[in-house]
Amino acid sequence: MAWETTKDGENEKIYYVDNDDPTKKSLVFDVDKINQKIIFYPKQGSFFLKEISLSGFCDVPEEILKSGTLRGGLLYFLNDRFATKKVLSFEISNHEKSSIKQTAKGKKVVFSFSDTETLVRKLGSIYYEAKIERGEYVDAFLYNTYPNNFLKSDVIKAARNKTRRLLKNLESDTIGQLKSSEAQRVVDYFIELVEKRSTQQKFFNLAKLKIDEISLDSVIDKIKLYISNNSVENDWSNFLIENLFVVDSKYTYAIPEINLTLGGSRRVDFGLIDSDGYLDIFEIKRPNTKIFEKTPDHGNYYWHKNAVQAIVQAEKY
Fold first, then answer.
1. Region 51-74: what's the mean pLDDT?
2. Is residue 35 part of a domain?
3. What DSSP letter does each residue of 20-35 carry, written as one string?
4. Does residue 220 lie in a domain region?
5. What burial class does residue 265 get, using C-beta atoms within 10 Å of its C-beta: 0-12 exposed, 13-18 middle, 19+ buried?
6. Distance, CA of 183 to CA of 178 (rounded, Å)
């Protein structure tokens, strides 16, 4: 590749010259140093606009190649994403933030130079990492195919690099985008991790404590919601059947609406079997059920009739 620069005072024109035919040359940059403005002419066919304005520059930044493109293949992606957006002009600015301004004739896109630097750096990093990953895949294949001729250490190194990439990509903004099957794959991975770790018990205990904490917080939030909605007893019954395992982990099985025959048929709200095989009977009362009353003369508390009825009812079961 060859370039030719011509000067006119503080202005410069930079041309790309064809190596095979030096008479063929194309203007790539028109530099106005006084006004700190550069007109960049992308390589023919690589961008939907004939020119891109660079404001706040006396010299061509290294992110923009003299061959008429941007490092990291960024120009390709910008062309692909903006070509159908009815863009009138495109500017890379060293002073302004990225923005899109709508005019009567079309959109004016301002792309900050800091964003350009970030994207170029990231794309370059991705390209480099992809190249390394391809090489690691080849190393693993060759070792598995010819174990006596290639080093196992290369495969171990590749596995460590794969681990670093995995952890690097564990970003919280992807959680909400997981499909059910993908979330299940994460759960399966977690289960396998717990089973295979040498420090299994410690790891499991830490994970369980965190899961219990999250579960309890969720249950507390639901209780607050049920109270604020003044939910009926049947709603509370269904809620407890689903969540009492979290509140008290000794229970292993729930039996909704048990039918007891004690001098007649009576349906109990639900029962729970604990880890020792005992059955506990639950009678649901809403949070606004009065438990105690206070005598006006001595200030003593005694059971309210609603509480007495619930106790007698449960005792009868």
1. 93
2. yes
3. S-TT-EEEEEEEETTT
4. no
5. exposed
6. 6
